[in-house]
Amino acid sequence: MKVLKYPVIPLTFFVAAGIFAAYLIRPCFKAALLFSAVSMLSLLAAYVISKKQLLQKPWFTLAALLFAFCIGLSAFTLAYPPNSPDHYTKMLNEQEIPVIKGYISERLKPNDYNEKYYFKIQSVDKKLATGKLLVTLPKDSLRNIYNAGDVLYIAAIPQPVYASMNPYQFRYAGYMEKQGVFHQVKLKDNFIQSGQIRNFDYYVGTLRNTLTEKLEQQHYSAQVTNVLKALLLGQRQDIDNELNQNYIDAGVIHILAISGLHIGILFYILNLLLKPLRYFRNQGKLLRLLAMLTVLWSFAIIAGLSASVVRAVVMFSFVSIGQYINRNTNTFNSLAVSMLVLLLAKPSFLFDAGFQLSYAAVFAIVWMQPLYSRIKPSKYKAVNYFTQLVAVSIVAQLGVLPLSLYYFNQFPLLFPLANIVVIPLSTVLLIVGIAVIILGFISIDASTLLGKALGFITEVMNSFIEWVASFSTFTIKDIPFNLLLMVCMYTLILCSVLWMFKKSYKRTVALLAAVLVFQISYTVIKLDADNLDETVIFHNWEHSLIAKKSGKSITFFSTDSLAASNRNAKGYTKGSFTDSINMKPLGNLLWHNGKRILILDSTGVYTGNMRADLLLLTQSPKINLERTLDSLKPAVVIADATNYKSYVSRWQVTCQKRKIPFHATAEKGSYTIR
């Protein structure tokens, strides 16, 4: 493969492999350091030996790749927060409530009930400490939103971040762990605010708030303002769910996440504006480079240093440096070097979905450029421009397709139509939006005049996206897809593109083999799912929910007539690769492979001479559990999420006294019977 002739690319790949291995095995720092030292000595020895050989052996290459792998291993181990001797987890005591001092570093997207923030710890009980918490605060119209730099004193024992409580759910705890967050704290009456700390986060937040105020001076609707905040400042927290879903369904959600598209536009604009400086010889070229890097990194800081924007800025920074030294840097090298720098600086970027999607899209665009650049159906430049726009959109979508199916389980069929309109509009919005913000500091009248055009274009774009998203039949949702299928699909895409570059016998065989492997993988996964026979009692707050999986169908039992649209039910249906769904009302008795499951609801009614293998308590029945246990003699007692916490605690104590296993879904998650 032509790409692999650049040494930095395989080195970057092995660094990434080392980071992934460290994430899986979690070596101690001394072990990682020892591996790195041994690999470095091996590299030096291989280098000395290779200098003395006329015919080169592969030992130096293998030693270099091993060294890169160990560097990735050490980078993750060194950056892993709990490995720090000052990490807050080493200072917690479950018997005592600590006083934690720290500051708000970033506001996250809130949910319907709570505001969410990242909280950087400075001390625990006046002892120097490091680490990061997720803090949640109930929404209150009388309480202000906290800003970066606000110092808080919190008296609370940090609790583990909520794990997924039902099968095939998004692993939120795993996601937060990859962000360096292991615990959360609910703020209510257990904290006080005490001033501000003026650090990097504070100044970035203050600058972002100042720029946000310039947008809010235009008096746009909340929807327009929030889209512009996302497009220009990388702030997506306040976008309402309906609008966000419209962008997802139209296949243009990347517009709301500052990435290579936005930085590429900014880079192009800067190139035009700073072009005259090239004529001032070395001083002008140096000034141009410094101006480019300053503006690009300032924009990255304002946008919150997200993985996608940092990746793009790092890559274009290397392109700028290459232009300064009169060397046209190879794009693959720029991508690989930017990835290498980012992974060494922050190894957790490897697990960021935005980071993965961004690199996959850019790599696909660059790699397949010789294929789609030949498409010129007309003699008119405008027609060819839009044709190329559609081609680039399709290629980028192809590059991220397996990842999109794995993470989001849906595929928008109208994405070429949406992109052909939205990409030019977003380009105009970015240019005009930056001008409006700058004019806000110079001339309010000029800013207001231009701002009217900005608001109109944004409304047009939102309306168009809403129209595209309204064709819901063209958005395929809830596609069952797992990690193995993702790997197989990428292999299939790789072999297909290589075959299009050169239609040789070997590549044809490889392509057919990739197709066969993908088909076999899907067939095996589907057969395994079809042979699964289980009953699942879900952790579901509003209504009791039970699923009986038998062969190729699932039957949901619930008191809710709309339970099939419940996210837990949809997640289970999708994850179990099942198409046939039935709904039945929840009664008081279910059977699974000869096991009798008795359900006691709020009425607490059951037949006195009945026996139960499993007893499910739901909707807080007012019963004497000891008498019930004597009567029913269940092997296991289960309490779902519809019960009062006080009831669950009392039942648990009773079961412990009787030495009967007790399972509370609020504590242990769903219960599966096989």
Low-confidence stretches at least 5 residues in length (pLDDT < 50)? none
Largest sheet: 8 strands, mixed
Mean pLDDT: 86
Total helical segments: 22
- Rg, please? 29 Å
Strand portion, in percent? Answer: 5-15%
What structural class do helix, strand and pairing data support? alpha+beta
Provide key terms for this protein.
5 domains; alpha+beta; 22 helices; five-stranded mixed sheet; 674 residues; OB fold (Dihydrolipoamide Acetyltransferase, E2P); eight-stranded mixed sheet; globular
Describe, in plain words, how this protein is organized in 3D.
Helix 8 (260-274) packs antiparallel against helix 9 (281-302), helix 12 (353-367) packs antiparallel against helix 14 (381-408) and helix 17 (483-501) runs antiparallel to helix 18 (505-530). The protein has 22 helices and 20 strands. It folds into 5 domains: 2-79; 88-197, OB fold (Dihydrolipoamide Acetyltransferase, E2P) (Beta Barrel), CATH 2.40.50; 208-476, no CATH class; 483-527; 533-673, no CATH class. With 674 residues, the protein is of the alpha+beta class.
